[in-house]
Design a protein that fits this description.
This is Transcriptional regulator, contains XRE-family HTH domain. The protein has 113 residues and is an all-alpha fold. The protein has seven helices and no strands.
Length: 113
């Protein structure tokens, strides 16, 4: 499996899609997706752009594996909901939410010995 195919597979699995669902969402056939995931072929530029737009993935990370922290691949669905919700907030609400997170972490650290 090539690295880009592996990253595409990770995006698919992170979004709880089977190959047919994921392929339909990005506009390719399931067979083509399978070949990409196992490394027998590379995705076209159109496919990469479709993945970027559909799944909001950092294109640099998708192509190179660099910049993962900028990508939109999540540890779990709760993290996905939090990050996507945060991105929809105005700047004031973002700052307020960050302050709440800092407060929760400070309280947690006081409770652990």
């Amino acid at each position: 499996m090539n690295e880009i195919g592996y990253r595409i597979k990770c995006i698919r699995k992170q979004n709880n899609h089977n190959q047919s669902e994921f392929a339909k969402n990005i506009g390719i056939s399931q067979g083509n997706l399978s070949e990409i995931e196992i490394g027998n072929s590379n995705p076209s530029a159109e496919t990469l752009i479709s993945i970027k737009r559909t799944y909001h993935v950092n294109l640099n990370w998708l192509l190179t594996g660099d910049g993962f922290e900028e990508g939109k691949v999540y540890a779990n669905m709760n993290e996905k909901v939090l990050v996507e919700g945060y991105r929809l907030l105005n700047e004031f609400d973002k700052i307020e939410l960050i302050e709440i997170i800092h407060l929760k972490n400070r309280l947690k650290s006081k409770l652990t010995f």
